[in-house]
Automatic annotation (TrEMBL):
Subcellular location: Cell membrane
Sequence intervals crossing the membrane: 516-534, 546-562, 603-622, 629-647, 667-689, 716-737, 749-767, 774-793, 799-816
Gene3D superfamilies: P-loop containing nucleotide triphosphate hydrolases
A Gene Ontology cellular-component term: plasma membrane
Protein name as catalogued: Ribose transport system ATP-binding protein
Stretches assigned to coiled coil: none
Classification via PANTHER family: CARBOHYDRATE TRANSPORT ATP-BINDING PROTEIN MG119-RELATED, GALACTOFURANOSE TRANSPORTER ATP-BINDING PROTEIN YTFR
Organism, as annotated: Paraburkholderia susongensis
Predominant localisation class: membrane
Keyword presence, Repeat: yes
Pfam families referenced in this protein's UniProt entry, alphabetically: ABC_tran, BPD_transp_2
ABC transporter domain mapped to chain residues: 8-242, 254-495
Keywords assigned: ATP-binding, Cell inner membrane, Cell membrane, Membrane, Nucleotide-binding, Repeat, Sugar transport, Transmembrane, Transmembrane helix, Transport
Molecular functions (GO terms): ATP binding; ATP hydrolysis activity; transmembrane transporter activity
Length: 825
């Protein structure tokens, strides 16, 4: 029986990964109302231990008790018992808005009506800060790293947890936001909540924690009173011995020769910046985040546009792109490791060699032996902990990822090395190694420029420090003046004013990245094309032509709705066309003249059971069997087509006239099926943005793992999407049946690509999370309209393919570019 004051108890937990014992019989307990620090090097097992506590990982041995109840390794159960976790990489869904992420992040009983999520989310954000610069209606992908962490922390606090786990919560936060976070921590612990605080920043842990537990190599090293240990003692417990010094010796006065010279460089966020860096020198850029130092570094790396003069060893540097900057000798170690530093699915070997491939290639052919040899040397030199060089880098700890990226950048032998937050997420033992490597690179003649939010790090590592304020360099510190106090003082006392500039995201691109832009643009194109066709051929607007065209639009639109639902969750279904054909073939045996009502009903039951079965098969292949959606549904495509040809080798079996007439009923000249298609589009669009199911679909497609951690049952959502797609194909087969009139096994083939085209033209993302059913309807309308107009204008059937291909390319390019422009840098 646990002490009633213990809200989290972990007893004897052991967790194994291939080749690694991540946790070895670890015991850990957290009392009500305390902040319990959890410290250790990268790979020590801190995040793994909390993943076990949260149910994200199931241990081989041991137990977890939350608020007096033993858990069974389930994230939903851990959430219900009151555990909330803020991870190093925020578990947010980028294509959802801030409000929608907050909505999914709290228990169901705490959620407001979906109609008022924006106001509710705004209130939560104001509890963080009255002047918080985060719009609840903005998509998460448009937020910068600090804002994403604030949203993640607000989400965790909104759940009113019993146990709050904070895993490196301050890595991206400004100093004022760190203070706000500590205020919230003190507030929630005063109400009886427990906080587990994981950080490499020892001073923060000492400042906020009551007790702390040390992990080393997956084993507990004891629990201590935080106030009873000095910083040096904590470091020694973490690394298992004494560290003589944290920073290597600086270069001194023997520097000569300018490596990089920048003159009057300006860009978004900074103005008229000039500097020189000499051989053997490390220059630090300091300032409150957002004052231009990071933007300036990104411009030097070719990652942002700039104007001005830059020379490297006397030669003009080109900064139009990162490739051009690299060719000029400038390389960058990015601060956002997950988004810009690593290739998560590639191996350690491939991540290391990718920046210096010429060293491993002969006449364009890559030598894996050379790659592996160089990588093993780098892994040893940089003490990267990895089971092998073929291990996916995604499975390494954050610090080991950082060290490997640094090794990769240095392997390209840059003349200028730009380093953004060199030790972010890196343990204290590894920091000294990184500092030593940077100093050795400078000594070898590389100009090193460092941006860091840690004033002590800048002071200890750099020979000179340039203070940025509002986009300008306002002060330079050198030699003995480079100290933590002087840097902090210079940052806080700067009085410059930022030069007024344009918004970082142009208005058109921000609008084009929204949900309504594809609909508006499609409506404009449809109207323009219709007006042109009517001008050239007045029979285009005849009721007969419009009636026939609307019936075709309805058929394509309905199957496109199913494709859209599936693409929302990141899937695709190539089998919808053959499925439609098979359903018509099956019905050609049941809906003949003279068939009894019971016989006809049997046909309807059979075809929709077939549709459900096809959806289940596709889901099984993609879900449990983990086949790629295109491979899985292509196999289903061929199987369905084979069945259709077996049943009807040649078209046959006329559909009864009474059935055809019923399906083709009209209200005036408008087919009833087209009215149904419009009603479906509006209803589905409303459901997409105003129901939990729609939110789940978009969340899973945006980021499956984050949706799962938010309590969305991603496997059931995927099942609903595949079965729903097949059912929509079945519904679309009904009007197609009236148009074909008999069991033709090839009747639906063209609908596969046409349905995908309608969805893509309608604004859907090929990667999931974004789309519109009204956009799919308009996309279907445009495709049918193009086919009809080319016939009316007598310009040849080939133009149908040219125009359709062009529309797809323009749509994908425009929507992709707009979303790229809307992403926070």
């Amino acid at each position: 029986m646990n002490d009633q004051n213990t809200l989290l108890q972990i007893d004897g937990v052991t967790k194994l990964f291939p080749g690694v014992r991540a946790l070895d019989n670890v015991t850990f307990s957290v009392l009500a109302g305390e902040v319990h620090g959890l410290v250790g090097e990268n790979g020590a097992g801190k995040s793994t231990l909390m993943a076990v506590a949260s149910g994200a990982l199931v241990p081989e041995d041991g137990r977890v008790v939350i608020n007096g109840m033993q858990t069974r390794g389930d994230t939903d159960e851990a959430r219900r018992l009151g555990l909330a976790i803020v991870r190093q990489e925020p578990a947010l869904m980028p294509d959802l808005t801030v409000a929608e992420n907050l909505y999914l992040g709290v228990p169901a009983q705490q959620r407001p009506s979906l109609m008022r999520t924006r106001e509710w989310a705004h209130q939560l954000l104001r509890q963080w800060s009255d002047d918080v610069a985060i719009d609840a209606s903005e998509r998460v992908l448009s937020l910068n790293p600090a804002q994403r962490f604030i949203v993640e922390i607000v989400k965790a606090l909104a759940a009113k947890p019993k146990v709050l786990v904070l895993d490196e919560p301050t890595e991206h936060l400004l100093a004022e936001d760190v203070d706000r976070l500590f205020e919230r921590i003190r507030s929630v612990t005063a109400s009886g909540c427990s906080v587990v605080y994981i950080s490499h920043r020892i001073r923060e842990v000492q400042k906020i924690a009551n007790r702390l537990t040390v992990l080393r190599d997956g084993q507990g090293q004891g629990t201590y009173d935080a106030a009873g240990l000095s910083e040096q003692q904590i470091v020694e417990l973490i690394v298992g011995g004494a560290l003589d010094r944290e920073f290597p010796a600086k270069a001194g006065d023997g520097r000569s020769g300018t490596v990089i010279e920048v003159a009057s460089l300006r860009g978004a966020g900074f103005t008229d910046v000039s500097l020189r860096v000499q051989q053997g020198e490390i220059v630090g850029l300091a300032g409150i985040d957002g004052n231009g130092q990071r933007e300036f570094m990104r411009a030097l790396a070719g990652l942002a546009r700039s104007r001005g003069s830059v020379t490297v060893n006397g030669k003009p540097a080109k900064l139009q792109s990162s490739q051009a900057a690299a060719a000029s000798g400038i390389r960058c170690l990015p601060g956002d490791r997950h988004r810009e530093g690593i290739f998560g699915d590639l191996s350690v070997r491939e991540n290391f060699s990718i920046r210096s491939l010429p060293l491993d290639s002969i006449k364009g052919w890559i030598s894996q032996r050379s790659e592996a040899t160089r990588t093993r040397l780098a892994v040893a030199d940089f003490t990267v902990k990895t089971p092998s060089v073929e291990t996916p880098i995604r499975s390494l700890s954050g610090g080991n990822q950082q060290k490997l990226v640094l090794a990769s950048v240095l392997a390209s032998k840059p003349e200028v090395l730009l380093v953004d937050e060199p030790t972010q997420g890196v343990d204290v033992g590894a920091r000294m190694e990184i500092y030593k490597v940077l100093r050795e690179a400078a000594a070898a003649g590389t100009a090193v420029i460092v941006v860091s939010s840690d004033a002590m790090e800048v002071a200890g590592l750099c020979d000179r420090v340039l203070i940025f304020s509002r986009g300008h360099i306002v002060r330079e510190l050198r030699d003995a003046a480079v100290s933590e106090n002087n840097i902090t003082s210079a940052v806080l006392t700067a009085t410059t004013e930022r030069e007024r500039g344009s918004a970082s995201i142009p208005g058109f691109w921000k609008w084009a990245a929204g949900d309504w832009a594809p609909i508006a643009m499609l409506a404009l194109v449809v109207c323009a094309l219709g007006m042109y066709a009517a001008h050239v051929n007045e029979t285009y607007l005849s009721t007969r032509n419009l009636s026939g065209m609307l019936a075709l639009v309805a058929t394509l639109a309905i199957v496109a709705y199913g494709q859209q639902a599936l693409m929302l969750v990141g899937g695709i279904d190539l089998s919808v066309g053959p499925l439609m054909g098979l359903m018509v073939v099956i019905q050609s045996f049941f809906l003949n003249d003279g068939a009894t009502l019971g016989h006809q009903l049997s046909g309807w039951v059979i075809v929709f059971l077939v549709a459900i079965a096809v959806g289940l098969v596709n889901w099984t292949l993609v879900g449990p069997f983990r086949l790629h959606p295109m491979v899985a549904t292509l196999a289903t495509y061929m199987a369905l087509q084979a069945v259709s040809l077996l049943l009807r080798p040649v078209p046959g079996g006329l559909i009864a006239d009474s059935v055809v007439e019923t399906i083709g009923m009209q209200a005036g000249f408008i087919p009833i099926i087209s009215i149904v298609a419009v009603i479906l589009a509006v209803g589905l669009e409303f459901s997409l943005f105003r129901t939990r199911l729609g939110l789940a679909f978009r969340g899973v497609g945006s980021r499956t793992e984050a949706a799962r951690m938010a309590g969305v049952r991603s496997h059931l959502t995927l099942l609903a999407a595949y079965v729903g797609c097949s059912l929509f194909a079945g519904i679309a087969a009904i009007p197609m049946m009236a148009q074909v009139g008999s069991g033709d096994p090839s009747a639906g083939i063209n609908y596969t690509l046409a349905s995908i085209a309608a969805v893509v033209i309608g604004g859907a993302s090929l990667f999931g999370g974004r789309g519109s059913f009204i956009g799919s309807l308009l996309g279907a309308l445009l495709i049918i309209q193009v086919n009809v107009v080319t016939s009316f204008l007598d310009i040849g059937d080939s133009w149908q393919s040219y125009l359709l291909g062009g529309m797809i390319l323009v749509s994908v390019a425009l929507y992709s570019k707009s979303r790229e422009m809307a992403v926070a840098k």
